[in-house]
Amino acid sequence: MVYLNGDFIAKNKASISVMDRGFLFGDGVYEVIPVYNGKIFRLTEHLDRLQNSLDSIQITNPYSHDEWHNILTKLSGFSSESDQSLYLQITRGVDSQRKHNFDTLTPTVYIESNPLIAKTKSQLEAGFSALTREDIRWHRCDIKSTSLLANILYAQEAKQHQVEEMILSRNNKITEGATSNVFILKGNALFTHPTGPNILSGITRDLVISSAKACNLDIQEIPFSLNDIHQADGLWISSSTREIMPITLLDDQPINQGSIHPAWSCVYEQYQLLKND
Ligand code: PLP
User: Fold this and answer.
1) Would you place residue 276 in the very low, low, confident or very high pLDDT band (cuts 50, 70, 90)?
2) CA of 97 to the centre of ligand 1 (A)
3) Does 238 contact ligand 1 (Cβ within 6 A)?
4) Can 39 be counted among the known catalytic residues?
5) Domain finish residue from 115, 148, 181
6) 168 with 133: CB under 8 angstroms?
7) CATH of the domain at 258
8) Following DSSP, what letter does each residue of 64-124 receive, concatenated?
């Protein structure tokens, strides 16, 4: 079952017009919202970020907070899974002709739910690998846009090299991963790129920061270099679906001799508490 423009219908019955600007231009925004134990996780934070994305591209939010809550709750209720990932996408809508500029249209709203299978602590403790690449994306990475060509190319390269993530740098500063935020540890200090146009402000990023504070880490929201990341005592990536994932191999070189920084376990446990509160 999926949601499309007011209807809950079978996925194979859902279709949109070829004149939808989401299809023609990737003219739309999206969100990915976890559901844990049947409860939507951090809905307000996700809807605030959605509002920011919509405002940035001049689409009027079609629903109020309560309407979103009701639609998402109803859709997640069709699934028997207690943990789900809700994907929602809003495009500018169906145009009468293909043109780059736009008039006010009725937005297209599509939502689907997929099972969310989080990695276990011991699976995460095995460590993961990543590669660094130049950040070729545009300068509005704070908008969660469906125009994801650069991210798609990174994901394909990651698949070809059998690594978990591509970690991106702009002017020798690490921005974020192709689908995640990036953290490094230097001693007791946890560094991550500040929010702004060069990164997506991850909901998990904020939760990692609050979890890390509870573990008495010193949070530094300042950019760090390619050299810093290679010399780090710990390297983590975060996202709603990956949670907090340790990277132990970067560009085929071990981070911290391949062992996970001891603070990871504390931050992981704090994060699990947030998931269940
Ligand atoms: N940065 C990028 C580019 C992403 O695509 C994502 C998630 O998809 C994130 C960061 C992490 O965001 P969140 O923690 O809200 O999932």
Assistant:
1) confident
2) 33
3) yes
4) no
5) 115
6) yes
7) 3.20.10.10
8) -HHHHHHHHHHHHHTS--SSEEEEEEEE--B-SS--SS----PPEEEEEEEE--PPPHHHH
Tally of structural domains, the chain: 2
| 137 vs 135: CA distance, rounded Å | 6
Taking the C-alpha atoms of residue 209 and residue 217, their distance in angstroms, rounded to an integer, is 9
| Claim to verify: residue 39 and residue 172 sit in the same structural domain | no
Tell me the C-alpha distance between 274 and 256, whole Å.
28
Of 144, 159, 173, 186, which residue is the catalytic one? 144
Look over the chain and give the mean of its residue pLDDT values, rounded to a whole number.
Answer: 98
Q: How confident is the model at residue 277 (pLDDT cuts 50, 70, 90)?
A: confident
125 touches 246 (CB < 8 A): yes
Mean pLDDT on 244-269: 97
Ligand 1 pocket residue status of 169, Cβ below 6 Å: no
263 and 194 housed in the same domain: yes
Q: How far away, in angstroms, is 183 Cα from ligand 1 center?
A: 13
Domain that holds residue 41: 2-115
Q: How confident is the model at residue 206 (pLDDT cuts 50, 70, 90)?
A: very high
- By alpha-carbon position, which residue is closest to atom 2 of ligand 1? 179
Report the CATH number that the domain containing residue 63 is assigned in CATH. Answer: 3.30.470.10
Q: Name the domain boundary from 115, 141, 163.
A: 115
Is there a single domain that holds both residue 98 and residue 125? no
Residue 180 beta carbon below 6 angstroms from any ligand 1 atom: yes
Q: Do 91 and 160 fall into the same domain?
A: no
**Cα of 180 to ligand 1 centre, how many Å?**
4
Tell me: do 29 and 88 sit in the same domain.
yes
